Amino acid sequence: MDTTRTLLLMGGGGHAAVVADAARAAGWTIAGCLDDAADAAATAAVGLLHLGAIDDLARVRVDIDPAAFVHAAHGDPDLRRRWLERVPPDAAATVVHPTAVVSPSARLDAGVFVGPLAIVNARATLETGVIVNSGAIVEHDGHLGAYTHVAPGSVLAGSVKVGPACLIGAGAIVHRGRTIGARATLGAGADAVSDIPPGVRAVGVPARPLVAATEPG
Ligand code: JB2
Questions:
Q1: Contacts of 156 (CB under 8 A, 6+ apart)
Q2: Cα 147 to middle of ligand 1, angstroms
Q3: Mind listing the pLDDT tens digit for each residue in 163-194?
Q4: Spans of all domains in the chain
């Protein structure tokens, strides 16, 4: 195993701290992070050296190690996409915690994160920038569209299809073969027995679309 790989994180908050732990456990050397809002003290609080702003990516990468890998570590899918688009394709790191179980027949694209104790089972496909967070399960033949986040402890049964930029909330369940449309949100603990259309926020058991209160006319 190559234990000399250097990793630079984009983002210096809670998710970056989780990715850093997983990456260290997997043998990466963490150089530090880039973060626009956080200062050195803020990122030091999560154990990360603040190396500059997001715009400093190219310069910092050359300074620390021109061969350094980069991981966009933020919970927001749009920010994660914008950040990852700045990373040279061959430098985008996929980080898998060593306690995760990932099937040899699963496909993980660039910039994916798989957290501690997560399971990604046979023939699952995870597109770029996906997060399968702590203890989540993606069963066989599941498909996760780019930048989707499967939050801790959620379970996607076999052959579930999830569109891009979705959030499957903590502890949610999606039944076998169901489809979650692009940019949909499934609330924490929700039980998706039916398909969830694109853009819809669904909550509860069984999961139903959340209808926003109408403004009084
Ligand atoms: O343009 C920006 C930006 N630039 C840098 N917008 C936002 N919202 N944040 C930006 N940042 C930096 O990302 C902030 O300065 C901060 O240091 C970091 C976000 O940290 P935070 O802990 O708030 O969120 P996170 O994305 O690391 O973690 C979220 O997503 C995870 C998946 C949380 O909801 C976690 O609970 C969750 N596990």
A1: 136, 137, 138, 139, 142, 150, 162, 168, 174
A2: 15
A3: 999 999 999 999 999 999 999 999 999 999 99
A4: 6-91, 94-203
- pLDDT band at 212, cuts 50/70/90? low
Q: Which atom of ligand 1 is found nearest the CA of 12?
A: 17
* pTM, full prediction: 0.95
What six digits make up the tokens of 186?
């499934």
Length of the chain: 217
- Cα–ligand 1 centroid distance for 12 (angstroms): 7
Distance 111 CA to ligand 1 centre (A): 17
Query: Separation of 76 CA from ligand 1 center, angstroms?
Result: 7
pLDDT category at 100 given cuts 50, 70, 90 is very high
CATH number, domain 94-203: 2.160.10.10
- Mean pLDDT of the region 6-11: 98
Atom of ligand 1 nearest to the CA of 16: 27
Whole-angstrom distance, CA of residue 128 vs CA of residue 105? 17
Which atom, in ligand 1's list, is nearest to the CA of 43? Answer: 17
Domain 6-91 has CATH 3.30.70.1350: no
